[in-house]
Amino acid sequence: MAKKKTLQKTAVKKPKQIKINLPQNSYSAYVGENIFSDFAKWQKILPSKRAFLIYDQILIQAHKNVKNELLAAGWTVESIVVQAGESLKDIQSVWPLFQQLMDKKADRWSVIFALGGGSVGDAVGFVASTYMRGLSWVGVPTTLLAQVDSSLGGKTGINHPAGKNLVGSFHQPSLVLCDVNFLNTLSTREIISGFAEAVKYGIVYDKIFFQKCIDLWPQILKKDPQALQWVVEKSLYWKAKAVVGDEKDLRGVREVLNFGHTFGHAIEKATNYEFFQHGEAVLLGMKFAILLSTQKNHLSVQKAAQILNFLQDVPVPKIPESVRWPQLFAPILKDKKNKDAKLKFVLLKDLGRSVLDNSSTEKELQDCYHSFLQLEKERTSV
Ligand SMILES: NC(=O)c1ccc[n+]([C@@H]2O[C@H](COP(=O)([O-])OP(=O)(O)OC[C@H]3O[C@@H](n4cnc5c(N)ncnc54)[C@H](O)[C@@H]3O)[C@@H](O)[C@H]2O)c1
Ligand SMILES: [Zn+2]
Prior knowledge:
Blueprint: H1 2-10, E1 16-20, E2 27-32, H2 39-42, E3 50-56, H3 60-72, E4 76-82, H4 91-103, E5 111-116, H5 118-130, E6 136-141, H6 144-150, E7 155-160, E8 163-170, E9 175-179, H7 188-205, H8 207-221, H9 225-245, H10 261-270, H11 278-295, H12 301-313, H13 325-333, E10 345-350, E11 353-357, H14 362-377
Zinc ion binds at residues 149, 197, 261, 278, 282.
């Protein structure tokens, strides 16, 4: 009896597994709390017990915890610290990492761990894909954005002066470990940024998920681990489906995930990537796409209002008044989805159902921008 009680007390909720079944390189993501304590269970899929743990310098405690768990599981651990952010995705920042791996004698059986947000995942994944023609790597995402989105799908890469993510490769991780306890230290803006990408899955794929996001929103803001775990699990379920359906992003399946991104990227570009968090810009981009969906008669005004009502409640900064339409239209013209000089947008037919539209003219987009500015006037800025 006493034994049973102790077991109940110490039982940790089992992490949730999301499988990414690919022709080659299948792997799983796990979502839970304190999931590194289970590490011994997963290590058999990795080629050795030699870890090269590359981590964001602000994650001192998380790095310590992960390192200790790896040591306890019988691994050797070499750590390399980096400064996270877009500047990490410069060739100049990434190049010294190869030297450090050589100095620490990383070989082809070594396993690289990327501990940090999306910038660390992208840059370290890229290093893992190219060092000695490619090593195994484990993603340990620590921002909500990275947990719900960038950690899955194997898109690794760095930036080029000509544009973001222009140099890179597809290199799937061997394992992704999403510990929601890492999210405790995120700022509200970082939480909102990741949450916006999660809400996106609900809007384009799953109206029940969308409703659940609305219900959980107050708990998400408070960083409640159970609410976060639920949102990460559900998001990765949908992201995994898109990745499995279109591993190399060539068949248009992953294009749906671009909902809100055409206008979102334009806002980021027009403000030099300095003013908005990525997900904040995507949230504004989703509002634009919803308005355009009604303008193009794909979506009813009532449905649009239902979605917009919630999005209006999520506090993100407004586009600075100095930004003018031509600054927004220039990047829309260059969007990578455009084909044969037609402007392609992911729009909505209904909550949970998207449609690709390439019939918008500049005049229509500018009219939509006016409606967007009207809508923005109705909410208080943060
Ligand atoms: N590969 C993909 O499929 C994909 C998809 C979406 C975005 N991305 C990329 O992801 C990047 C953006 O992701 P991000 O916002 O996670 O970037 P990030 O790595 O720059 O992290 C954002 C900030 O949060 C801090 N941080 C990280 N973990 C923290 C924690 N637990 N507590 C407190 N602070 C923490 C970082 O130091 C940084 O200042 C962009 O470079 C984008 O291009 C990639
Ligand atoms: Zn995004």
